[in-house]
Design brief:
The complex is a heterodimer of chains A (217) and B (433). In chain A, 69% of the residues lie in helices and 0% in strands. Chain A is mainly alpha-helical. In chain B, strands 1, 2, 3, 4 and 6 form a five-stranded antiparallel β-sheet that branches. Chain B is of the alpha+beta class and 433 residues long. The chains are: A mainly alpha (217), B alpha+beta (433).
Chain lengths: 217, 433
């Protein structure tokens, strides 16, 4: 009668009560009165439980926001904003686990192991949204650079998540501000700006090099 | 897409902004005085204009309370020279809108439902900005509603913004920081109250009931069950803002009617309620299609305690000025004359304040008053400029209640001036206990 959900629930309960992982899969399954084999049918390790919880959280967020009536009217900017607002709302219900899970990660550069399942999902969602924006002209197509837009959003993801972990404000209002301002500024950079015009002008001048000779340089 | 590209977010960034402005103002003074070396005739107008532009530019990049302070200063035409005022009044009209998703988020946080689920129709694009929020149009059961939504984090940034504004205020008003603190605190209290939308709803209901006998003033119905700490739902009032209204070239009769409604509204509050809607800037009023005055914002209310109301209004009524002793007593109660003043100082401030108040209370001295007169306002401005240059007035005087009461009355006068209205001034007169 072991199920993935039951194991997950027991695991969350254990780590939040003890503030650490169970000593071994053996001791964990014994307490749960299931066999080790049952455990391994669903999960390869404790880490994979945590990873799957994170994946569920983000998948649920994305499917939730796409159900909103306003979704179709939203610009790319609004879609990303909407994602983050809904995401932190969902995280709120699991704040203890989220905090525990991130806190126990070994400090290293790059993406924490528990988020390794989240990253491709987020990037996929971000890329889709960005492409819509590029097609509609909301965002500026830039050689090489527009492929990296999603990386900028992943950085925002990490920033917002960390900000939220440390946020003590009432109703996490500061996180709302961080999202609003951070995403606005990021999308402002994705938009066509004077730099694009300047760059194009520079390109034009170098391509029409004859000009230089004529002007006596 | 937006009114501005970036907004300085952290306190450090905001301070940097203010510091930069400080330098610019310094620069403007240097520019002014070096020009003056060669041309002694040069007036301070150009300098004031340079300063106003720089201060305005930096304030307009800040949101929330800094914007509010710009508004406040813009109302207090007594203290600020004209050039400042023109620039500052612009700040009443722009702020970048909240994103659609944040609006949805605010609703779900307060009501657990998205706006489309609460209302039959909800326009996600805001129709206009209020200084600490923005207004949306919605519909429910066939009724058109106005929904006011507050920017997040406004309350938090007020105190820190005020600290940042202090050096400015010091520069503009020429007061020391210690003297300024008591006034800054008063402003802070009012501003924080303004962020409490639940309080605003309660007050709006209270005032619209209390003022219901004023026939030419209308109030929207408020819906407390559809309001929360950052959202206010009220009826949509159809009509024009003052500026738009004036562009339609209304007849003198209509101007007088609106002016009278405004006058009655304020004097009724001051004397019957002893608390007053202290934010009379044109954006808070709507002229309805049947030419009534719609009042749509009760965020800022100033209550007048008896120890302020009684001496202050006794000055403008009861012929108190005929009695020098009684006048000085009232001035002492209002801390316009301080306990340590010498006999010469008492004489000086007595004369100066008497002149100031007589000038200011002029509309009350005749049964009707024509607010289109330029002379009256020139007189006020000139007097303001004159005392701003007097060393005796570098020192703060007067109880803290003056800030908002002056602001209210100057605001009232300047709207009436824009309306070019003639009003009956003795409809509601001071009442003493």
């Amino acid at each position: 009668m072991a199920s993935a959900a039951a194991i997950k629930k027991a695991y969350i309960d254990f780590v939040l009560t003890h503030d650490e992982k169970p000593k071994s899969v053996y001791s964990f399954t014994k307490k749960l009165k299931i066999t080790e084999a049952d455990f391994y049918t669903f999960y390869a390790s404790f880490e994979s439980i945590e990873k799957s919880i994170w994946v569920e959280l983000i998948s649920e967020t994305i499917s939730e926001i796409q159900k909103q009536e306003l979704w179709a009217q939203y610009s790319s900017r609004d879609k990303i904003l909407s994602f983050f607002y809904s995401y932190v709302e969902l995280l709120k219900a699991n704040r203890s686990f989220v905090t525990y899970s991130l806190k126990t990660q070994k400090k290293k550069l790059g993406t924490p192991e528990v988020l390794s399942g989240v990253k491709p999902i987020f990037e996929n969602f971000a890329e889709e949204t960005i492409n819509e924006g590029l097609e509609s002209g909301e965002l500026a197509e830039r050689k090489f650079l527009s492929n990296r837009y999603k990386d900028a959003l992943w950085i925002q993801y990490a920033f917002i998540l960390n900000f939220w972990i440390d946020d003590n404000s009432e109703g996490f209002e500061k996180t709302d501000e961080a999202i609003e301002k951070g995403i606005q500024v990021t999308f402002d950079l994705f938009q066509r700006s004077p730099i694009d015009s300047l760059f194009e002008y520079g390109k034009f001048l170098t391509q029409n090099g004859k000009l230089k000779e004529k002007m006596g340089f | 897409m937006k009114a501005q590209e970036t907004m300085p977010t952290t306190k450090v960034e905001r301070s940097a902004k203010f510091v930069k402005t400080g330098f610019q103002i310094g620069g403007n003074y240097i520019k002014h005085y070096s020009k003056k070396l060669f041309n002694p005739e040069l007036s301070r107008d150009e300098l004031n204009e340079d300063n106003a532009a720089d201060i305005y530019n930096s304030l307009s990049e800040l949101k929330g309370s800094a914007l509010k302070i710009a508004q406040m200063l813009s109302m207090d035409k007594n203290i600020l020279p004209k050039a400042y005022v023109n620039k500052f009044t612009q700040s009443q009209y722009n702020a970048p809108p909240l994103s659609g998703p944040l609006i949805v988020r605010t609703f779900t946080k307060i009501f657990g439902k998205t706006p489309e689920k609460i209302f039959d129709k909800f326009n996600i694009k805001s129709t206009h900005a209020a200084s600490i929020g923005q207004v949306h149009e919605a519909e429910l059961n066939g009724k058109k509603l106005a929904i006011k939504i507050q920017y997040p984090g406004v309350g938090d940034s007020i105190s820190s913004d005020l600290k940042l504004v202090k050096p400015f205020a010091f520069r503009l008003l020429g007061m020391s920081e210690k003297e300024l603190n008591i006034y800054i605190k008063e402003v802070e209290e009012r501003l924080l109250e303004e962020t409490d939308y639940l309080l605003e709803v309660r007050r709006s209901v209270e005032f619209s009931v209390a003022c219901s006998q004023l026939t030419d003033v209308v109030f929207p119905t408020y819906y407390p069950e559809l309001s929360g700490n950052r959202i206010i739902t009220m009826d949509w009032i159809e009509g024009l803002h003052l500026k738009e209204f004036l562009q339609t070239n209304p007849s003198q009769e209509v101007r007088n009617k609106i002016g009278q409604a405004l006058w009655d509204f304020y004097n009724y509050q001051q004397h019957e309620m002893r608390k007053v809607h202290a934010d009379p800037h044109p954006g808070n009023f709507i002229i309805t299609n049947d030419n009534k005055l719609g009042v749509i914002d009760f965020g800022c209310i100033k209550e007048m305690p008896d120890d302020f109301y009684e001496p202050f209004f006794s000055l403008t009524s009861n012929n108190l000025f005929d009695n020098k002793e009684a006048t000085i007593k009232a001035f002492r109660q209002l801390e316009m004359i301080l306990p340590n003043d010498t006999a010469a100082q008492i004489e000086f401030y007595y004369t100066a304040y008497k002149e100031m108040i007589s000038l200011f209370a002029k509309p009350y001295s005749t049964p009707t008053f024509d607010f289109s007169q330029v002379d009256f306002f020139e007189g006020l401005y000139n007097y303001g400029e004159k005392i701003a240059k007097m060393p005796e007035f570098k020192q703060a005087r007067g109880v803290k209640h003056f800030i908002y009461i002056n602001r209210t009355n100057f605001g009232l006068y300047s709207i009436l001036h824009e309306l070019k209205a003639t009003v009956k001034t003795q409809t509601y007169t001071p009442k003493f206990k």
